[in-house]
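Worked Example 4.2. Consider the chain below.
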Amino acid sequence: MNGPYLALILGLGSRAWTDRNLIDHVLTETWHDALQDGYCGIEVMEGTADGADTMCGDWAKARLIDGIGHLPVPADWEGPCTANCPPGQRRTRRNGTEYCPLAGHRRNQNMVDRKPLVALAFQVGESTGTADCLRRLAKASVPTRRWAA
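Applying the procedure from the previous section yields the following structure tokens:
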């Protein structure tokens, strides 16, 4: 390999995920594997949702001094709908603010399009956002490791 490169790792999962120790163990193992494969470290990309995404981000931020990168990719819930959104797609929250319900899907595709080396998925039940991202990863042939609670 020419020069120092960080392996891009996608950490994703359910908002209901609670096992921080497993995420810490898996990311540490993935970091060590990347070092053995010739990378200088990893960059953890995550979608900023509560639960597993946030835990993956917390792990990365706690290790910035060790050369770990952190790439948060939030969904633009309040932003405009795209041309692909059906008319009348926007929803209104209890507080009166509007959002595009497809923003999470666009964010998931954005993360998949960045071509992570591997995705680490932590899923509780049938979490719809996690399931959507897993389908997109499979379609893009991104290697994925999964844990279920």
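The chain has one domain: 6-148. The first strand starts at residue 6 and ends at 13. Compare this with Example 4.1 before moving on.
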